[in-house]
Amino acid sequence: MLENHRAGMGWIAVILVLLLSLGQATLAQTRAEDRKILALEDAVEFALKNYPAVRASLERVRAAEAGIGLAQTNYLPRADVVWQTNRATDNNITGLLLPQSIISPISGPVPAATSNRSAWGSAAGLLFSWEPFDFGYRGAKVDAARASRDRANAEASLTRLDVAVATVNAYLTVLAAQRTVLAAEADVERRDTFDKAVRVLVENQLRAGADASRADAELARARVNLARAKQQEKISRAALADILGLPDTSVEVSEGSLLAPPPDESLPTSPLTRNPIAQAEYARVEEGQAQVHILDRSYYPKFYLQSSVYGRGSGWNPAGNFEGGSAGLGPDRSNWAVGLSVTFPVFDIFSIRSRKAIESANERAEAARYDQTLQDLTGQLRKAQASLEGARNVAENTPQELEAARTTETQVRARYQTGLSTLVDVTDAQSLLVQAETDDALARLAVWQNLAAVAASQGDLQPFLQFLHDKTQGGS
User: Fold this and answer.
1) % helix / strand / coil in the chain, to the nearest 5?
2) Chain-wide mean pLDDT for the chain?
3) Which of the four CATH numbers 3.30.70.240, 1.10.3720.10, 1.10.10.60, 1.20.1600.10 does domain 139-288+354-475 have?
């Protein structure tokens, strides 16, 4: 019995181990499936679809488009319907009453004496009112709504540009951090191998003990640099994940052609007036112009074509006697009327002039800001083009720097083995090599980053992304 029990427990342990292994394999597969490997173009597209600020700007565009429809409803006629039933006394009195909203008016003859007796009263009516022409006032309101819609569209495009640029910069920063980590890992591996070789020489009394201590110190410093590089990689990956709205552990970047030899071609140019920054500022100028136009159309008479149908009922007869019962619950007298009303805001001219002066000043201020925006964009473009030219010059020289550093490190290490150079010479050569490896990788990324900066200065990253796509397809 004891042996059978032990055998059963053994099978249970085997099954548990198999289940645990299967679960770990499934978990690893699930984590691999959850991990997103994004090319730069895919990362930009993903951010533009999911970044909250982009969604908010699109909703503002929809609200502005609805504002146009709201302004256009002013062309529609107005029809108001009313019905009321009341129970009240009929103590009317002769006299003037200034316009107010507190005391209810009473129609009918003035009674000889007051009474607390009440009767039913009712009223129903329909008032139709339409403004046949307005000297362009309603059209000016619609134009102002369209200007607001254009501004919202321009601001949405600007938000998309900002998000795209931030995504490109974060993506390239992650790549740069990864290449720095690779260079630091290679440096640690070289220094570790060299540290072991130095210890063999010291143990055989072929080198002084100080060389071993110096080699240990250099290896420790390389490991510190590697730790810092990995820390920076995690920070940059978290920044990219924040833009994409994804956990940083599930974001993987693809090098693609970004680390290939940088391109010599230039991006197509476009007028700076098409930059969303300039378009948004120009839309503000148009908004100011629309507000001035509204005020120009405000000091005109208002014409209203009106018609009314109404009826009233009262529990008091024409002689002022109480009829009692349900008399007055429903209208029993009806009327209709058709007419044309004209209103003119005589003294509004003073406030309209002041408001127009304000809006005209605002319009001129926005026009000045628009000119300043174009000037700033021109300066940014020139700086980006100069930076791109410098980055290309650097990228042309870093391969020679890397090749020379590799040759130097190999030769100096060999000379140290034969006693022809010092350990300081080797550590200097290794430091030069890791710097050259980092410079070479970052120089190629810098060319792409400056290409993106030139495209961003012109207000559209799509040519840059298309250029990168074509480069990747050509390389594949």
Assistant:
1) 65, 10, 20
2) 85
3) 1.20.1600.10
